[in-house]
Design brief:
The complex is a heterodimer of chains A (434) and B (453). Chain A folds into 2 domains: 143 residues, Aspartate Aminotransferase, domain 1 (Alpha-Beta Complex), CATH 3.90.1150.10; 256 residues, Type I PLP-dependent aspartate aminotransferase-like (Major domain) (Aspartate Aminotransferase, domain 2). Chain A is built from 14 helices and 15 strands. Chain A is globular. The termini of chain A are far apart. The relative contact order of chain A is 0.16. Chain B is globular, with a radius of gyration of 23 Å. In chain B, 37% of the residues lie in helices and 13% in strands. Chain B is of the alpha/beta class and 453 residues long. Chain B folds into 2 domains: 138 residues, Aspartate Aminotransferase, domain 1, CATH 3.90.1150; 251 residues, Aspartate Aminotransferase, domain 2 (3-Layer(aba) Sandwich). Chain B contains 15 helices and 15 strands. In chain B, helix 4 packs parallel to helix 11, helix 5 packs parallel to helix 6 and helix 5 crosses helix 10. The chains are: A alpha/beta (434), B alpha/beta (453). The interface between A and B is large, with 95 and 94 residues. Chain A: Its cofactor is pyridoxal 5'-phosphate.
């Protein structure tokens, strides 16, 4: 009897079932490829320019001060100066009176905020609607929580007059979206501005989603990490400010994207206490505290921005202005080289159609790897230019729906973008010369 | 809020604590009722909302209170550690994402330090995961390897997060208490031991893992080689994993040696060993920890990590790596911080023990760690008129905070339901405190009997 039970235990896998199907991760592979081969890395989404001086100074001040207690634990749900300024700042934007202790919680990046949301609200049997293309972690996080992801695509409609396609040309079909909601639907994940497409959802589109959330009593997990990166005078509208939505929404933000400091891993959730209390429970049983000194510096950063809000000196005004120039520069380079860009309304990503370059990477019917992934790998190894295949942002069943797009990150120094342009021009010349 | 009763989610009858704006008032009342029900929390966190720290850190935050409660140093980290962080944050690329499973220079440094300690090769990329504190390592390990149907043995008293983490993973905690050998007159943490027969009885075919904490929080016990061998034998016999929380590994006092259970025969392949920058370098606010073990186990922790927070902060990891190189190079030198901190704490330990003894108490002198527990029942503080439902030590600590301006942590926070009665006369003091804090504690303890409750 004893040997049998031991054998039974040894024949079971050692890992828990919740890890089934969530072990693959595109970044592990592509980050390694970029590190090995790339000379110009427009792949993973991080700036290659530094955070603003005022933020770096805030960290130096925090470190050089008399108070060495900044090296010790702070309040678990968020360093008081940070949650206070976040409550003030977002309270103003949302037109709500926010309590820093109950309506805000700090996390280790927006990534951990997403994790807490899924763990707090998604149980086995729950469905979560995910709009494609999506930041890839949503799907495995829903799966790990025992939920079922339900996908609904943004569908592109070619613009008239041969204009360049914009992220605004990709839209949800309202009947299709409505059909995805049922009694098992627990949540919908909204990402606006959207990574990888760059779409900034319009008020009408948000109202469509909001109506369905209120009608079906569904939670909206609103990933707004690129909230400040909107171009062409577009407005980032917060779905939580729509009628009925404050009570149905958890807003997620990121200091990494806000202040060009992705390595600091400071994020936050904002929402009603009724929802945040459960997010706090997950947090206190998983990570508990976030690093103190980074929170102190981010708090200082927000204080400055609160004072300068709307003014020309505000980083939240300057950064999108800078990035819009870079966007336009990259769009032009890609267009000139024959890769067809989709102009993003927001974020620091854009998609480009590589159809004109397909001859370099022949189709392989024997491979079940999506074409764009094979293309992107070939490109980084042979051209030194790193980008991410669009299929990374689709569920397995839909990975081949759009087989010829890759995503570029343009939060890069001029020199980097110029180097990318040089690679593309040379590549184009190689193709056209006899 | 969190201090309120454990049950939440009342259907329909609810008081919203926030002002709702004009627009939200348009929601019909019936919708409010279904809203509350629909956005109920998941089963996995049911009953896990309360937490001793949330309760007690708030109460002790008052600066007039001498805080010997929560385990955080009020001494400064070494200067070179602080300098390395300033240096790291000045490097532009170190303000952006690093490798998810651990910053390359940090995992390299960790592999060197622990190769030396363990006497075996440790691959920095496959055998190590960097996490958000040891807390994050515990979470990643439990989520990766523990699930419904599993039992996990937890030794009482235990660092309080073990129980909710095991429950959140859907598994059943099985408790076994440390018992004192000598009848009630324990003077040393070494007097608290596991009964081998009792321990053996806790193992069965469902036992997936045992959580070991050495040096132990809160008792301060440093498990001996023989004691570890008893645990190891059972792990091997029952094919059980060992989750070894060794955050206080450098804080062992004279006459004691920290032994890593993973170095015992047959144990490397079934052990995850957890460490902490916060405890190693007195920087609890850096929240960096690590899990070290065989690739076939660590790879599952890495999967959890890539689906929870992906990467830990870069500048902190780089600074930690540099600090480790500095101390790695002097691991043969008594000035190495790993040893000098331990010496510094040993004298604080001795002072703390003396203060408590002078106050007429019998502290359990720890062989390691920076906590000391003490039986306060001999003070005969009558708290019977206070809320009867709370254990005695909770009531005592709250009373001590208000009337004596001294804080500690009640030991029953570290016990399973069956043993709370056994441990409710103990409270835990943290002594990694600067001299002025201990001076202030001394004044309070000397004057204890002069004030009436």
């Amino acid at each position: 009897f004893f040997c049998l039970s031991l054998q039974a235990k040894m024949s079971r896998p050692v890992h828990s079932r919740r890890l089934e199907g969530v072990d693959k991760n595109i970044w592990v592979e592509f980050v390694k490829l970029a590190a090995t081969y790339s000379t110009v890395n427009l792949g993973q989404g991080f700036p290659d320019f530094p955070p603003p001086d005022f933020l770096k100074e805030a960290l130096v001040t925090a470190l050089s001060g008399e108070n060495h207690m900044l090296h010790q634990y702070t309040r678990a749900f968020g360093h008081p100066p940070l949650v206070k300024i976040l409550a003030q700042f977002f309270g103003k934007l949302l037109g709500q009176d926010l309590d820093p202790m109950t309506n805000v919680m700090v996390t280790v990046g927006a990534y951990q905020a997403l994790f807490c949301c899924f763990q707090a609200f998604v149980d086995e049997g729950d469905e979560v609607i995910i709009i494609e293309p999506f930041f890839d972690c949503y799907e495995p996080m829903v799966t790990m929580a025992g939920g079922t992801p339900v996908f609904v695509p943004l569908r592109p409609k070619a613009p008239e007059n041969g204009k360049m396609m914009s992220s605004a040309d990709w839209k949800l079909d309202s009947a299709e979206l409505a059909s995805k909601f049922n009694e098992r639907t627990k949540a919908i994940v909204l990402n606006s501005p959207n990574n990888p497409l760059g779409k900034v959802f319009s008020r009408g589109e948000l109202e469509l989603i909001a109506d369905l959330c209120v009608k079906h009593d569904v939670l909206c997990i609103s990933d707004e990490v690129y909230e400040w990166l909107v171009y062409d005078g577009k407005e980032h509208i917060r779905i939580a400010s729509l009628p009925g939505m404050w009570d149905h929404t958890v807003i997620i933000g990121s200091a990494g994207k806000t202040f060009s400091a992705t390595g600091w891993k400071v994020g936050w959730t904002v929402g009603p206490n009724r929802l945040l209390q459960h997010i706090r429970t997950v947090h206190q049983n998983s990570v508990y505290h976030c690093a103190t000194v980074a929170q102190e510096a981010v708090a200082q950063g927000f204080q400055r921005e609160f004072m300068l809000y709307g003014k020309p000196d505000s980083y939240f005004v300057q950064l999108p202005k800078e990035l819009q120039k870079k966007r336009d520069w990259l769009v032009q380079s890609l267009d000139a080289a024959g890769m067809k860009p989709i102009i993003p309304e927001g974020t620091y990503f854009l998609l480009a159609d590589i159809s004109n370059f397909k001859s370099d990477v022949p189709d392989n019917p024997n491979s079940d790897e999506p074409y764009d992934s094979r293309f992107a790998k070939w490109m980084v190894k042979n051209k030194g230019l790193a980008a991410i295949p669009l299929s990374a942002f689709y569920c397995r069943a839909h990975k081949n729906n759009y087989s010829h797009f890759i995503r570029f990150c343009f939060a890069k120094e001029e020199a980097t973008l110029k180097a990318a342009s040089d690679i593309l021009q040379k590549w184009k010349q190689e193709k056209t010369s006899p | 809020m969190l201090l309120a009763s454990r049950s939440f989610c009342c259907l329909g009858i609810r008081t919203y604590q926030l002002q709702t704006d004009l627009l939200s008032r348009s929601i019909k009342l019936s919708a409010s009722a279904t809203m509350t029900f629909r956005q109920k929390n998941t089963r996995r966190i049911e009953g896990l909302d309360s937490n001793v720290w949330v309760e007690f850190t708030k109460v002790a935050a008052d600066p007039s209170i001498v805080n010997l409660g929560q385990g955080l140093p009020d001494i400064s980290p070494p200067n070179y550690v602080k300098e390395e962080l300033a240096k790291a944050s000045a490097v532009d690329r170190l303000n952006q994402y690093t490798r998810g499973f651990g910053h390359p220079s940090l995992v390299k440094a960790l592999s060197q330090v622990y190769e030396r300690v363990c006497g075996r090769k440790i691959d920095p990329l496959t055998d190590i995961l960097v996490t958000v504190g040891a807390y994050g390592s515990l979470f990643s390990t439990i989520q990766a390897l523990i699930e419904e149907g599993d039992e996990v043995i937890i030794i009482e008293p235990f660092y309080d997060c073990y129980e909710p983490m095991v429950k959140m993973a859907g598994a059943k905690p099985v408790f076994i208490p440390l018992r004192y050998k000598n009848d009630g007159n324990s003077a040393s943490s070494a007097d608290w031991v596991l009964d081998p027969a009792e321990l053996a009885n806790k193992f069965n075919s469902k036992t997936k893992a045992i959580i070991l904490n050495t040096p132990h929080n809160p008792v301060g016990k440093v498990f001996t080689r023989e004691e570890l061998q008893v645990i190891a034998d059972l792990c091997i016999k029952h094919d059980t994993l060992c989750i070894s929380d060794e955050v206080y590994e450098w804080l062992v006092y004279k006459g004691n040696q920290h032994i890593k259970i993973a170095t015992l025969p047959g144990m490397w392949e079934r052990t995850i060993t957890i460490g902490s920058a916060g405890k190693t370098y007195s920087v609890t606010g850096w929240k960096l920890g690590w899990s070290i073990g065989p690739q076939n186990l660590i790879k599952h922790l890495q999967v959890v990590h890539q689906n929870t927070l992906y990467a830990c902060p870069t500048p902190l990891q780089e600074a930690l790596a540099q600090a480790f190189w500095i101390d790695y190079k002097r691991m043969d030198d008594p000035d190495c911080y790993f040893y000098s901190l331990s010496r510094e704490l040993e004298s604080k330990r001795d002072r703390m023990a003396q203060l408590l003894q002078d106050a007429g108490l019998k502290p359990v002198v720890p062989d390691g760690g920076y906590f000391m527990i003490v039986d306060v029942s001999t003070l005969n503080v009558d708290l019977s008129d206070v809320d009867a439902k709370q254990p005695y030590d909770y009531k005592f600590v709250k009373w001590m905070i208000t009337s004596k301006k001294l804080s500690a942590i009640p030991l029953s926070a570290f016990c399973g339901p069956e043993t709370k009665r056994q441990f409710e006369k103990y409270i835990r003091f943290c002594f990694i405190k600067k001299d002025s804090t201990l001076d202030a504690a001394e004044v309070i303890l000397k004057n204890w009997n002069k004030q009436t409750a």
